[in-house]
Amino acid sequence: HTNETCGANCIHHKKHHSSQNDAHRDGPGYSSRLLSPSLNRSQSSSYPGGSNDSKEEFNYKSSVAHAKTAETLKEDFLNAKVSGNWKSLLEFYTSAFNSFDELNVIFKRDLSKDYKTIEDPGLKFEFINLVYDILVNTPQGLQKEVLKAIINSLLKDKRVHSKDDLRAFLVLLQNPQFRNQTTYVIFAHLLRQIAALSDHDHHYLVHWLKSLKNDRFRAIIERIHNFISGRLFPPKPGDLPPLAKCSWWIPSATKVLALLNAANSLLIPHLVPYVEFYNSTLDHLDLMAEYYAWQNPSSHAGFSFCQYPFILSIAAKKSILQKDSEQQMIIMARKSLVAKVQRRQLPDIGMLFLNLTVRRSHLVSDSLSEIAKKQHDLKKKLKVSFAGEPGLDMGGLTKEWFLLLVRQIFMPNYGMFTYDKVAGVHWFSPTPCDNYQEFNLVGVLMGLAVYNSINLDIRFPSVCYRKLLSPAVVPFNNPRATVGVCSVSLHDLKGVKPEVAKGLQDLLDFEGDVEETFCLTFEVVQSTVGDTKTVPLKPNGRSIPVTSDNKKEYVQLYAEWIVNNSIYSQFQAFYHGFHSVCASNALIMLRPEEVETLVCGSPTL
């Protein structure tokens, strides 16, 4: 049994090694020799809790670490620092991390309770934080023994996991030791076991992760990012196993990061900003190869970072979208060229572009007419010329066209959009009209801006971009499909019409007799040209009074009416206009905030 052949079983036979072997094992790369790439599940019955039957045999009272409290742990640490005798802490830590059962003994709030709900993991998080804060300040020898104990607990992985096992995974995931590259082999196996859990177990973990404090949550994200970056671009490649032998490392880490992202998304406000899930190291990958691997999963290994778009920075997504757009432009230009040749016509350079010629005096109508005539050319490179004005468009005329068109369409007296001074945003006018083609033009305009990498001076509320991605891909061959409708909250309404939202919030907060005080029914008043009309929020709404019991329903329906229902036709035309240009699967990867950045540019610049 030599050092070279020592694998996972080394843990169980370490007493038979010579001191020389022990010294070799404790070197920088010891973890890779202790933990083989394929964990041995057959050993799961050799520890308390290795199976459901043996779980009951575990004697919690005999645990070395069971009696340790925060105060005694602090006291032991201070004494050890003074005396240099770390024996007490060594016993505590090696016992604590030696098995999933021990982890539960120490960190579970009440051993008599099961804690089988998603709301409460039943863990002593403050004590977990203390244990780890002290651990990173102990001697390296003690920290190595803890890592060996963790290896021991991971070797006992089971196919069926109890809620106690999930708690143990959650505790281990918070271990700050995994920020060091020398621990990456162990960290990789922890991540793989978590990634391989069932959807049911993942559901619990996602909700339990919400219980972490911001700084601890952020620290886990940073460690996983560093792990992914270190595996992709290792500072010293020789310190890690060959990439070919651990191709599962990055997919496992990314899947665990997805659980953290899901947990973060469930909370408002988020524990951390969504941009903290970006890994800028990935900007240096062949992003289009990642994109094509995602588009054609059958022809590749099956993993692509595009499957987990939260990890890709806005710069990476913009690069993918632009290159995908360029590719579509080339394809459309090539088709035009081939068609011209097939008709035996002489090709000209103009056919490779979307050429728009407009009069300044009829800017909107000419733009509408040109875009309507050239629907099949929208994915070509845009070039604009103004009638009667000589000059080639090298980009300046296109930008001027966008600027003038946006300025004219969004003028309040033009009637298409309203402007809220408090929120500082434009919104769609709910006034019905005979032709919604101009709203389609605005959608095309926004799509062309994204497609041609031009930022527009437009400010819509954030819910607009959620609606624009609802759904992110236009329903195929179904023109009657509902589009541009998203879930709405009072917070969303505040971004559109803050004063209306405040009035509705006051209604919710009112503790008196709502019906007698406000005299409201389930209907709203809508202004039309020179007139007003009432619109029911629900069937027979005019006859249903708003009371203290149903005021929440009234507020919800009112918000949905303003954001979705009252402007459905306008937004439907806008939605189809945008997607007629930006119909790309790359849009699926974008968050609403990221679409806004692509349209308007970064708010921080």
Automatic annotation (TrEMBL):
<dbReference type="GO" id="GO:0000209">
    <property type="term" value="P:protein polyubiquitination"/>
</dbReference>
<protein>
    <recommendedName>
        <fullName>HECT-type E3 ubiquitin transferase</fullName>
        <ecNumber>2.3.2.26</ecNumber>
    </recommendedName>
</protein>
<dbReference type="InterPro" id="IPR035983">
    <property type="entry name" value="Hect_E3_ubiquitin_ligase"/>
</dbReference>
<dbReference type="InterPro" id="IPR044611">
    <property type="entry name" value="E3A/B/C-like"/>
</dbReference>
<feature type="domain" description="HECT">
    <location>
        <begin position="374"/>
        <end position="605"/>
    </location>
</feature>
<keyword id="KW-0808">Transferase</keyword>
<dbReference type="GO" id="GO:0061630">
    <property type="term" value="F:ubiquitin protein ligase activity"/>
</dbReference>
<dbReference type="InterPro" id="IPR000569">
    <property type="entry name" value="HECT_dom"/>
</dbReference>
<keyword id="KW-0833">Ubl conjugation pathway</keyword>
<feature type="region of interest" description="Disordered">
    <location>
        <begin position="13"/>
        <end position="56"/>
    </location>
</feature>
<feature type="compositionally biased region" description="Low complexity">
    <location>
        <begin position="31"/>
        <end position="46"/>
    </location>
</feature>
<dbReference type="Pfam" id="PF00632">
    <property type="entry name" value="HECT"/>
</dbReference>
